[in-house]
């Protein structure tokens, strides 16, 4: 087994609680306890991995402002950090960057 295969396996690891939650959602797509587990997991993932969960969530509960807010906050957070990083490299006025971040 090459080092790449081990890396791929580690990257694809899915916690048992997430597998159980997915199984529950197959039986009942409105199971809020199962969704809570998936939301917590998504909140600990990079947005590119979590986005699929958030999209499923808002598709299942399209009128839930709470769930849309979670999704939007996850997207905005990554954009905010990207902006800060970009400005820290390219902005001539570092004080301006600190003001934006506060």
Strand content: under 5%
Task: Please state the structural category.
Answer: mainly alpha
* Helical content (DSSP H or I, runs of 4+): over 70%
What would you call the quaternary organization?
A: single chain
- Evaluate the radius of gyration: 18 Å
GO cellular component, one term: nucleus
Protein name: Cleavage stimulation factor subunit 3
Subcellular location: Nucleus
GO molecular function, one term: mRNA binding
Keywords:
102 residues, mainly alpha, 6 helices, elongated
What do you see in this structure?
This protein is mainly alpha-helical and 102 residues long. 79% of the residues lie in helices and 0% in strands. It is built from 6 helices and no strands. It has helices spanning 3-11, 16-27, 32-43, 47-60, 65-90, 94-101. The mean pLDDT is 83.
């Amino acid at each position: 087994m090459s080092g790449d295969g081990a890396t791929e396996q580690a990257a694809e690891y899915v916690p048992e609680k997430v597998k159980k939650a997915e199984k529950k959602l197959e039986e009942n797509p409105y199971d809020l306890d199962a969704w809570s587990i998936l939301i917590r997991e998504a909140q600990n993932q990079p947005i590119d991995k979590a986005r699929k969960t958030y999209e499923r969530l808002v598709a299942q509960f399209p009128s839930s402002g709470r769930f849309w807010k979670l999704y939007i906050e996850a997207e905005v957070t990554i954009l905010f950090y990207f902006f800060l990083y970009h400005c820290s490299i390219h902005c001539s006025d570092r004080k301006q960057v600190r003001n934006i971040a506060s």
